[in-house]
Amino acid sequence: MSDRPWPTAAAFLADEIASFRPFEAILGLDARDLDTGGQAHGWSARDLLSHLVGGHEVATEVARELRTRPASVRKAVADAEWDARADEINEEIREAWSRLPIDDFRSRARSATAALRSALAEVPIEHWWESEEYFDYFNSETVAHYDDHRADLDQVLGRQAG
Question: Which pTM does this prediction carry?
Fold first, then answer.
């Protein structure tokens, strides 16, 4: 745990909020720009945010399990599903979210992110922060995942990277 850039769980959670904030710009796009504006690897702005917050929804389920026990069955199932069919899962998320009216899209995205933060705040520290497996999981679904898609965000928002 000493090689983590965050000294505490609270610092990690604060960084998660700050790291996600740039992606919230997608919520302010109009319907045209959300779906047919800039593209990143064939993904629209809606697709990109759906991908991130779709992961938040699963991570919320994991966190809710960890509130009462030190291991999550949902995480084990999600990991196995991801290993077997990651591209299909991404497409299922994209397809489901593409059908949402813009107001429902915005509401669901905000709710998913808020639910994850709320659920994670209720997990005993020893069940996630002090667990390499679960810390790595939550980091991979949040801060590290946002870092992976930072250039994509610039593309879908029509900004020059740099």
Answer: 0.93
